[in-house]
Design a protein that fits this description.
Helix content is about 60%, strand content about 0%. By secondary structure, it is mainly alpha-helical. Helix 4 runs antiparallel to helix 5. The longest helix has 22 residues. About 30% of the residues are buried.
């Protein structure tokens, strides 16, 4: 059966790089607070003021989480130190409250994981479990910590069980209004664990391929929830790369890859055409993969966007991969899918260089903001030029 023709959407009209219809985003106040101070001659007495957050330990817990989040964006990681001190202070201040211990140990484990203290994080998570912390959160962080610290098949299988339990439809804490079956972060972690489990199987084997196919299923499930999820695309690139490795041994004459639509269409038709010789189909797969890589290396153009072409190729080749019974043709499809997902990952991953460049430019233009953004800020008590300074 000959596959349907590959059709590409027409490029958007307008000038190169022109941005149209950008909405004006509103500024929203997320929270506000007010404190009245006694000032002599104006307001000598003020009413008693109390925090709306009760019990008090929740304020400490929120402060510690804020320090933890700050630590991820701080080059000196001072926030991690402050967060750890806060959660340990909670344990000392409320030694007899299991609810406090559950939150403190759980968040302490998050700090330890962020700092690479994996063995300490495992113990903190066990303490959190004994204190009655939510089982799904403990299972999630247990899976992440153990996956980063796994050394054998059994430990990875425990991680897989942790993530599967969170995604199990019959175990959802719906009385709390939670449903984790669509949490693509957990789905991606399960895919990563299955890929790691496959790596313990030596060589090409049915067992290895079984774990890889399960991982692919999870990553594709994540993409159905978020088509621009870069972690899922990267995970699929890793899985298909392992499945398509034999194709890299095929040697073809060097030629300039053709990236125009007609060439992509012709190569795809050859690969998927069941009336064509198998050797010719595998050769077309290699040429198509080279063309995908060459297309990815071309300059970005608003008139000829790359993403629609990659996604249309993906939409045709993925079903073929899942339905094909011939092992060699399945390898050929995996080889192309490897390159397609790698290029889509490159499109969707955050541009860290652009971010750092923008931050540096803003810091240079705004000295006061640059000073205030330091981990430890010391302000002078007197301004230059003031009397007595």
């Amino acid at each position: 059966m000959v596959p349907p023709p590959l059709t590409l959407p027409s490029a958007p009209q307008g000038g190169e790089g022109k941005v149209r219809g950008v909405p004006k985003l509103p500024i929203v106040d997320l929270c506000a607070d007010r404190v009245t101070l006694p000032v002599e001659g104006i307001t000598d007495n003020v009413p008693e003021q109390t925090s709306p957050i009760v019990p008090v330990w929740q304020r400490w817990n929120d402060y510690g989480i804020g320090c933890l989040l700050e630590g991820f964006s701080d080059e000196k990681k001072v926030g991690f130190v402050q967060a750890e001190a806060t959660f340990r202070a909670m344990l000392q201040e409320y030694p007899d409250k299991k609810e406090v211990a559950g939150h403190a140990y759980l968040n302490l484990a998050r700090v330890q994981e962020a700092q690479g203290q994996l063995n300490e994080a495992v113990q903190s998570l066990e303490n959190a479990r004994e204190a009655g912390a939510p089982w799904w959160t403990v299972a999630y962080f247990n899976g992440r910590v153990n996956l980063d610290n796994s050394t054998d098949r059994r430990s990875v299988e425990t991680v897989i069980a942790n993530f599967r339990s969170i995604l199990d439809p019959d175990k959802q804490p719906r009385e709390r209004g939670f449903d984790f079956t669509k949490d693509y972060r957990v789905i991606n972690e399960l895919g990563r664990a299955l890929f790691e489990r496959a790596s313990f199987e030596r060589g090409q084997s049915a067992a290895r391929d079984g774990f890889l196919l399960e991982a692919i299923e999870q990553y594709e499930r994540a993409l159905k929830l978020d088509s621009e999820n870069e972690k899922a695309h990267y995970g699929l690139h890793q899985c298909f790369q392992m499945l398509g490795t034999p194709m890299s041994r095929l040697t073809l004459a060097e030629e300039t890859p053709r990236t125009e639509e007609a060439s992509l269409f012709a190569l795809t038709t050859t690969l998927l055409g069941d009336k064509t010789d198998k050797t010719e189909r595998r050769t077309a797969a290699v040429r198509l993969a080279r063309a995908v890589a060459a297309l990815g290396a071309e300059p970005v153009s608003s008139k000829q966007p790359k993403r629609p072409r990659f996604e249309l190729l993906l939409a045709r080749i993925e079903p073929f991969f899942h339905n094909e019974k011939d092992a060699e043709l399945k390898e050929a499809a995996a080889y192309v899918l490897d390159w397609l997902h790698l290029e889509l990952f490159q499109i969707f991953k955050p541009d860290e260089l652009a971010q750092s460049t923008a931050i540096q430019a803003y810091r240079a233009k705004h000295p006061a903001a640059n000073h205030a953004a330091e981990a430890i800020v010391i302000y002078p008590l007197h301004r230059a030029g003031a009397p007595g300074y």
